[in-house]
Each structure stands twice: as C-alpha cells, then as structure tokens.
Amino acid sequence: MEKEDLVSKKMMYVSILFLILAGCRPFLSETKVTNTITPVIMSDTWTPGPTNNPGITITPTPTTPPPTDTPAVVGSPIGPNPTGVPSSSAPPLISGDEITITSIHMFTPEKGWAVGHQQGPVPRILLTKDAGRSWEDLTPPLVFSTQPYMIDLNPITFFWDQTTAWVLYTQEVIAGQPNTQRIWRTDDSGLTWTPSEPLPYPIDLLTGTPGQFFFLNPQQGWFLSHSEITHMHDYSNLFGTLDGGQTWLLVNQPGDSMIETLVNTEMAYANSNQGWMLKDSLGGFEPFLEVTWNAGYSWEQVDLPAPDGDWINLDRRCIGYDPVFFPDRSGAFLLNCVPYNDKIQTYDLEDTTSYIYRSNDFGYHWQIQELPSTVTQLDYLDDQLGFALGRNHYRTRDGGASWQLIKNVTWSGQFSFISSHEAWAVAREGDEIALVHTSDGGLTYEIIQPLIIK
C-alpha cells in the first residue's frame, strides 16, 4: 500500500485546522541504464544537500553513452487513449538528468514506484527496475480543465504491486464545471493506462477535493473525496468499486452518517465490509474513529480510551495515521496527540506524543503503547514486524508489545520497507531532499542520485 508523504500530510492537516477555526481560539506518490554510484554513507546529522557534503562528488556512470549536447527527452508511454477522454501530455523529461523523488513505494529489491519531478510543476509517476538508481516516466495522460483555478496536479496514488497501480491527479471538481475527475489504472507497470468513468458526484456538490484511495484487492477499493470542511465537519463523499476502478459507485455522501464529523484523515478495510475511518479531533474533542460494517454505507462512532486516565482535562489535538489490518482481522494505527500551548496560542507540534493503538476485536477493546519520542509513520510488514519512524527509528518484532530503538537522525523521512533489513526513504531537512537506501535495517543509509532514463 502506498503511503503519502507524511511531512506534506502533516502540513495539510495544519492548514485545515487554520481554515476551520480562523478567527477563533483553535480547538481544536526498454532501454536499461545501470547507474553505478559509489555509496555515500549518511551520518546521523546528515543534511541532504551537496553543500553540506564538502569533498563528496557523486558521479553516475551509465553503461550507455552519456547524453550529447542536445539531451534526449523522455515522453510518457501512455498507451491507447480512449475516444472522448480529454488528455494533455506533460512536458518531456530530460534523459540522463537527475530527478527529485518526493515519495517512494518499493516492492522488491529492484522494482518499485515513486512520485517525483525534474522541472516544471507536474509531478510524475515513476518506475524503477534497479533499486532506485534510474527511473522511467510512466505518467498517465493528464486530464484537467483549461480553467486555471482547477489545475492542481498533485497525484493521489495507490500502488498494489510493481505492476498494478491507480492514479488520480487532484484537480478540484466545482459546481457548474465539467467533471473531469477520472481514476487511471495500469496492470502492466505503467506501459498502458485505462481511465475510469467520471466519478458520480452528487448533483448538489459544491466542490470535490480528492483525498485517499484504499484497495482491499485488485478489484475492490474505495476513494474518499472532501467536499467541504467547515464548522468541525468534513463533508466527504465516499466512492466504491468492485471492478478494479473502471466504474465507481457513490457509497456515502454528506448527511448519510457520522462520516462527516470532524476531519477524516485516513481509512483502511479489514475485509469487504469492515473498515475504519481515522480522524483529526481538532482539539477540545475526545478522540474517536468511525467503523463501518457494510462497506462504507453507514458508520458508527467508536470512542478511543485515553492512554492514561481520561480525556476530560487534556486539551489535546489528536490525529490518526496509518491504519493497518492483519490477516487475523486485528488492526493498529498511530495516534499523535499535541497539547495546546497558551504561550503560542495554538497546538504545539514540537511537543507531540505518539501512541500506537491496537485492537483484536475491531475497536471494542484496545492495547495502547506510548512511544518514547514522536514518530510520523507506522509501517507494519506483517502482524509481528513493524517500524515506527520519526527522528528516532524504532522496530518491533512482537506486534508492538515492545519497541527497540534502531537509531536517531536529524532528518525526517517517508519510508518504504520491504523486509526487516532493506528500505528506501525520501529524506528531508528544511528545503533539502534526497533519496536514501538502507540494507542493514536502518543502522546506516546511502545516498542515491536518481536519474531519468528513456
């Protein structure tokens, strides 16, 4: 399952908070080129910028000749484009030049997907076959209106495996304007893409801003779109598919159930019917999640127990992230709680406490684990092995009953683990960004300089 860039996600929820409570006290992702690079080992205090690595020169050495003075450009092999589906190709990328990876999801030691950009405003859908050293641009046709205010080209993605993926570029749907939102699917690693039918938004829709995908299997999935966020409510539309995303049904819309209360953050499903919707409590509200027993058609509120004592005197804003279910239908998620700071008159992200909530009965009873420091990503590989990742990196081998510190670093990252020892991360520190790789479970990382290939 593809994870969004958690740093961007956190900033999105901060923006939502200010929008909701403006003016009030806040309550609250063939020609093969082998990119041979001498590994550069990151120090714990590494900052991902060349100016911070004096004396280090990273020289990619492709097995094919380097570009001439007139660089080759790489187009998007998008396959047949069905009649009647408007499309617009993104500007071509330059073969042999570096590309910035902004989110990554790997599936094997060699193959995986990423979102990134080289130049221009359009993030690309990328595929690697050599462990992240080189990438192919496999972006689907970009479908968008000519109205400038409707062009917002940040993709919502879900990567099932190295061959199957879904992509929606997040143009907003606005009342009275043509609905061009189509979800693109590939089953051949991006060589061809098939668009869905337009999403069936309700007639009285004001706006529709894409939020998140979740797929239970290659055929059944859900898509959440935010319609309006105001007055402590997230008026969302939930769509479902049973044919792999070719057609979508409107499963839930504002007024149908509690799904509109507070801000919806992330969802996950244990099976065809049972799922969770996590929330941003916005502060001043006791944290809860919502549970569905009928594939999202209706939802019920499940209050979360406080880690210690009760919530009554705890002025905290708690946000749920990274829900996951295991084969035995037990589930877990990350809850980050932020106290209100009277001095700065807002919720203080520097004082965040991270908890892992786990339930064996779908949310009626909980085991709660407080982590020693703040983390921003929870990544389970199975029901026993998992990672909790922030500036301190932790690992569990017993399902979360205990967590061991791997190391601490001075950068933030979006991680993709494929085993107990191998992972990739998009590392960030301030405005700097880099792609890094570990083969020893996170004890050390090497810097990768990713290139675009034709």
State the gist of this model.
Helices cover 3% and strands 39% of the residues. With 454 residues, the protein is mainly beta.
Fold and architecture overview:
It is a single chain. The protein has a five-stranded mixed β-sheet with strand order 3-4-5-6-33, with no helix packed on it. It has a five-stranded antiparallel β-sheet with strand order 9-12-13-14-15. It is mainly beta. Helix content is 3%, strand content 39%.
Low-confidence stretches: 1-40, 48-83, 145-151
- Strand numbers in spatial order across the main sheet: 3-4-5-6-33
Biggest β-sheet description: 5 strands, mixed
Q: What's the number of helices?
A: 1
Give the total of beta strands: 33
Instruction: Give me the oligomer status.
Output: single chain
Beta-strand content bin: 35-45%
Could you tell me how far the N terminus lies from the C terminus, measured between alpha carbons in angstroms?
27 Å
Rg is 22 Å
Overall residue-averaged pLDDT value: 79
Structural class: mainly beta
How much helix is in the residues?
under 10%
Which of globular, elongated, flat, extended, rod-shaped describes the shape? globular
